[in-house]
Every structure is written in C-alpha cells, then in structure tokens.
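=== RUN LOG ===
request id: a7f3
mode: sequence -> structure
chains: 1
length: 398
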Amino acid sequence: MRSIELFAGGGGLALGTHLAGFTAEVVAEWNGWCCDTLRQNQASGHPLVQDADIREGDVRDVRWGAYESKIDLVSGGPPCQPFSGGGKGMAADDPRDMFPATADVIRQVRPKAFIIENVRGLTRPAFADYFSYIQLRLAHPELTPYGGESWAEHFSRLQAEHTSVRQDLSYKVVATVVNAADYGVPQQRWRVFLVGFRFDVDAEWAFPEPTHSAQMLAHSKNVTGEYWERHLVPKKYRPKPVMPSGLFELPAAHRPWRTVRDAISDLPEPTANGSRRFLNHVLQEGARAYPGHTGSDMDEPAKALKAGVHGVPGGENMLRRLDGAVRYFTVREAARLQTFPDRYRLNGPWGEAMRQLGNAVPVMLAQVVASSVHEHLALADLRAQTTAAFSQAERLRA
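=== RESULT ===
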C-alpha cells in the first residue's frame, strides 16, 4: 500500500508505517538536519527509506493534487510546539500550527485513511474547543474556511454541517491518548493519535489494545525477581521481595513494561571516541543532577525524551544509575528508547540528533498503529472485491 508522510522529522513515524507494510511515495520535512538524516540513511541503503521521495520544505508548497486517489495512507506529526506543556500554548495563534495544512493535504490527496500524531498537551482543557475543531476539520477536509473566517467561526459552521446530510469527502475519526510504554516502548511517552478512515471504507477499526503493563513489571521485580535475575543485578540493589496479597492484579496476556536496562544493557559503556559497532554511541560530557533534574531510572521505562538538549526540565535525556550517578544518554541509547533500528544513523551533533529523537514518534508504537490500519484497509478491500464479484454474478444470472 502507498503512503505519504508529512512533517517526517527524523523518520520515526515513516519507519513504523514502512514496517507495517506501507511504502512512502513522498516524505516531507522542512528541517535541514532531519532531511539530512533521511538522505544519509537512504544513501547508505537503509531499506526503510530507500525508495522515498524526500521533499525538504513547507508541505504547503507541494502539489499534492498529483496524488489524488492514488494513496492509501497519509501520516504525520504536525509540530507539537503550539500545544506542548513546555511552550506558550498558543494553539491556533501559533504560526507553527500545521493542522489546517494537514487537513488541506488530505483534501487534495483523498487517502483511504490517515494517522496523525501529536503531544498529549493537545487534549488539555484549555484546548478543548480547538481539539474538537481539529477533529471536525479532519473529518470534513473539503469544508474549508471562508476567506477571513476565524477558526471559531469555521468550527461553528463545521458543527452545523457535520449534523446535516452531505455528500462531501468525509472521514470517520477516532481520537485516542496512549502511553507508548503500554505497547513495548521502553519509555513513558504519552501521545494522542487521530486516525481516520474515508467514509466509503468499511474498516470497523478500533485502537489496538495494550500489550505491556506496569503491573507485570512490578510483579517480575518485586514478586518473582525474574527481572533482576535476568539482568544479573547484584542483590544489594534489589528491593526486598513481597508476597502477592492482592496487590498485583495481573492483566491477562500482558508482558512487563520494558525498562531502560532492557533497552540498552547490551551496549558497551560509551566513550568520547565512540563505538565501532554502534552508530552514534558517543559519550556526551557534562551531565549533573539537582532537585527536579534527576534523569531516568535504569530499571523503569525512561521519562519521555525531550526535544531540548542540556536544559530539559526533568533531566529526561539523562540516565540515572543504581548508585545515583548520572550521565547523558548517547544518541544511540536515546534511539533505542525510541525503538529506532541500530542501523539507522541520526545526523548532526548530539544536540541536533537528540532534538530529532525528542520530536519523534517511537517506531514500535507507529508500527503497531499502522499495522492495524493496514490490516483493516486490506480487509475492507477484500470485502469490497467480494461484494463487487457477487453483484456481477447476480447481474450475469439475471
């Protein structure tokens, strides 16, 4: 199936959709460092980006009409700064708000489905009306704003149009907030997904169920001790085992959350000279802990990586060892926490590479969502073909 990737960044969502069975026709991104990452991996023969047409620049400058009705999926993560808790929270008044541009691409391309991702901050009460507006805008991409019409005025008109009987291009939109750790990503990363299927696609889709849980991690550490045994952690660092007296209600078929140790324990200790075996595995000096800036615990999922560098507020880009010592994650370690493949190189100095990772969708989470969408599109196509064949047979018999 064919796809288009908007606001690709360093490639997390694009890699996930490719692993799910989509082939990106166009990968669009304005940031030069990110585009260099995509181009360098393409030049080195990385299979996940090999055939993509990388467009550096504003997505609004691409002639998307050439792809009308030829694309199965549009995916992308519009810039999160207008909605991030660390920003000014300007939403629609922020010039970086690209949700209107996203809806316009969908209007021109008319894909069978879309996957749009953003920060959980988008769902804050302060943005409630705008979040509802975004969902309606994506549901009815052809109902564009009039000249000079504010988003609030357009929202009111969309609400009226949404409840009327219309024949315009429309999508059934599902909005879901998820924690990446619940899907096997070794990081507590909350994100909102907006997934839509075109009105004529019989998808019957729901967001995939979680596969991992905090309860199972606690059980493997505090009850069975399996976690510590597997990692050969000295007993002096292990908590005292407890008896499971109703404290652990274990979800059926769930696996334990993955931890920082799970993700990076096979990597060598980083040095300033880097590693011959692992790309981007270079020690970055200068990390220090202080109140509120403590780093990520080795034996828990990491805090959500941030797109800042040294000054991120909670020390999210630092590792905290069992003895309390801290150091910065190498780019490769951070890439592991975002489930990027080891062969995938992040371009630029440490700060720029960490910025790409901090803005990225975890590849594994993207793959889980995109695989489900791919499966439902395939089933919908099969149902449509079966119905068409049955109708043709009925006509022939008549």
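=== NOTES ===
Residues 3 and 359 are 21 Å apart (CA to CA).
Residues 2-210+365-387 form a domain with the Rossmann fold fold (CATH 3.40.50.150).
=== END ===
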